[in-house]
Amino acid sequence: MSAEFSFAVHATDGRARAGAISTPRGMVRTPAFMPVGTAATVKAMHPNAVRALGYDIVLSNTYHLMLAPGAERIAALGGLHTFMNWPHPILTDSGGFQVMSLAKLRKLTERGVTFQSHIDGSRHELTPERSMEVQRLLGSDIQMQLDECVRLPCSFEESDRAMRLSLRWAERSKAAFGDQPGRALFGIVQGGVEKELRAMSARALVEMNFHGYAIGGLAVGEPQAAMLEMIETVVPHLPFDKPRYLMGVGTPDDLLQAMRRGVDMCDCVMPTRAGRHGLAFTRRGRLNLRNARFADDPRPVDPLSSSPVARDYSRAYWRHLEIGRDPRDDGPDGNQSRLLPRPHVGRAAGDRRRAPGRLYR
Questions:
Q1: Whose CA, among 172, 231, 312, 338, lies 20 to 30 Å from 246?
Q2: Distance CA 317, CA 297 (A)
Q3: What residues does 35 pair with on adjacent strands?
Q4: What is the CA radius of gyration of the chain?
């Protein structure tokens, strides 16, 4: 462990690199995929099961936690690490994407965004300063600036407006972050699918000297080729000695394509969502384990997998669990009582198609 936040590259292969982020709460080996624990839990999994799969860091979300149970309450209970029983590094998103995609009757201004909760309709305001305050109260190790994420496709003018607003919010986020020893703040590169805007955003954020840099606003409807082109545009403008984070990307092929282009970190709800719906990613493609053709199939999901869940149980058995489960088991208590948590199935490797988009960044 380190008393300060730091990052080191240990090896490279083309633009791909292997390294480590050091924090007071532990080391994050990179390239890293971060399971999403949006509301302080990775759905259907105990924290020790997440750790046993080899993960060093998880992601939680400012928007959801500020609405329920509330950042001040979590702080009073000892902070997010204690609250969710995860003593290792945590990254929190700023909440900006969820405000834009989930909240009702939102109003965007230079100051920030006011919105109605998608839960109960209550009114809230999220500004760069409030986002930083919430993330400080949560005690996350890596915090994200507040940004505006536009849906694609959109016009050049709309991408330009949102990118420039996000840069102004980046300055305010950095000022509000202040001095938090051992913690880090990442800036977020925006600009839609416009190479000129992406390069401009990256250069401006580097001048602000963040601890790391994220590429946001992708995997929101654009083709994979456009996403990869934006990564190739942005990465050369980012410092070699700071981590690079591609937000909201989680299919196996997208992960590999991003990492070979120099990305160090990714996150997505894809693995747990896929597992909860009987979808497995394998080196030979996707398997929908609800399909009737697997009812009498004695083969494992992936005989070459290092995971006993994918290697030691038949496809017929997984279909039996999936088809025969009680819908009431979707609650936290129901899934905890099962023999094996289905989300592990979604950890098998390989996939050539990409998701239609993300719900959580």
A1: 172
A2: 9
A3: 268
A4: 20
Measured between alpha carbons, how far is 38 from 64 in angstroms, rounded to an integer?
Answer: 7
| Average pLDDT estimate for 104-133 | 92
Is residue 143 a contact partner of residue 135, using CB atoms and an 8 Å limit? Answer: yes
Strand ranges across the sheet with 123-126: 104-108, 113-116, 123-126
Give the phi and the psi of residue 18 in degrees, each rounded to 5.
-120, 140
Q: Which residues contact 193 (CB under 8 A, 6 or more apart)?
A: 152, 153, 159, 222, 226, 229, 230
Domain boundaries, the chain: 6-267, 274-347
Residue 43, token pair as written in the block: 């759905």
Angle at 1 between CA 144 and CA 132, to 5 degrees: 20
Structure tokens at 2: 């380190």
User: Residues 272-324: pLDDT tens digits?
Assistant: 899 889 999 999 999 999 999 999 999 999 999 988 989 999 999 999 999 98
Whole-angstrom distance, CA of residue 325 vs CA of residue 304 = 27
Average pLDDT over all residues of the chain: 89
Q: How many residues does the chain have?
A: 361
Residues marked active site are found at 93, 267
d(CA 240, CA 17): 10
Is the confidence at residue 102, as pLDDT, over 90?
Answer: no
CA 244 to chain centre: 13
The tokens for 87 are: 């003593």
Q: 276 with 343: CB under 8 angstroms?
A: yes
Which tens digits make up the pLDDT trace of 3-19?
A: 899 999 999 999 999 99
Q: In terms of C-beta density within 10 A (0-12 exposed, 13-18 middle, 19 or more buried), how is residue 142 classed?
A: buried
What is the CATH number assigned to the segment(s) 6-267?
Answer: 3.20.20.105
